[in-house]
Amino acid sequence: MNRKRIINSKKTNRKKTDGFTLVEILTVLVILSLAVGLVTFNLTRDERRELEREARRLTGAIEYATERARYHHELLGLAALPEGKGWQFLQLPENSDTRWLVIDDDAPLAARKLPDHLRFYPQSYAGKEIDVHAVLPILPSGRFEPYQFELRNEGWRIRFIVDPLGRITTSLAETS
After folding, report:
1. Over 90: is that where the pLDDT of 8 sits?
2. 48, 119, 131, 155: least buried by Cβ within 10 Å?
3. Which CB contacts under 8 angstroms, 24+ apart, belong to 38-46?
């Protein structure tokens, strides 16, 4: 009987140092998978959100250009960079009737190069289709001929419509 007590006391006093429990391993796996999921979610490019951000930037730049044209009484223009890779604002000086100059002394109106997967395309001016290299005028009077242009990527497009009062409306759609 004395021997039984010794054996039982060894069983109860033994500490478990052989490894981790299943609960501990599962807890670590859950934490790691959540961390990897968050990192992956934050690093992947959301093309729609990026397109909307560029649309807000362009809308703000056009509104600023409109106010600048009125305040300084100057004729400005908006044009696409080659291959639709961005846009630039131009100015037609008073002493020149044909040569537009790139505005490079005003940060909000500086040429904007888009990320490689985004494109900017003028669509129409005064109800007529226009060449993609056309300059959309921003008049000092504050009046506009209605015009349209688009920002696009592989899956989405945002169409901009500028009315005669210079108000800008946008519509987002999936490309087919």
Report:
1. no
2. 131
3. none
